[in-house]
Amino acid sequence: MAITKDNVIGEVITAHPELIETFFQNGMMCIGCPASQGESIEQASQVHGLDADALVNALNDALKAE
Q1: Which part of the chain is the DUF1858 domain (predicted)?
Q2: Smallest Cα–Cα separation from 7: which of 55, 34, 42?
Q3: Confidence (pLDDT) at 35
């Protein structure tokens, strides 16, 4: 399953807890935040001023490396 900007952060973490480090490495430090349970990667990226495309690419690259 490829990750997209529409995926909810909480769902990605539940399915792939090994990606927590990739979120951290890309500036997404709010993994434990209650909002992350319902926010898409794109929504959270906008709030935190991050590049959603770069984050999604990093997450998919990390999945391929597993």
Answers
A1: 3-56
A2: 42
A3: 83
How many other C-beta atoms are found inside a 10 Å radius of the C-beta of residue 9?
24
Helix (H, G, I), strand (E, B) or coil at 8: strand
Tokens at residue 38, please?
A: 């319902």
Bridge partners of 8, per DSSP, are 40
Q: pLDDT (tens digit, 9 = 90+) per residue, 7-33?
A: 999 999 999 999 999 999 999 987 888
Amino acid identity, position 63: L
DSSP 40: B
**Domain ranges for the chain:** 9-65
Give 41-53 as a DSSP string: HHHHHHHHT--HH
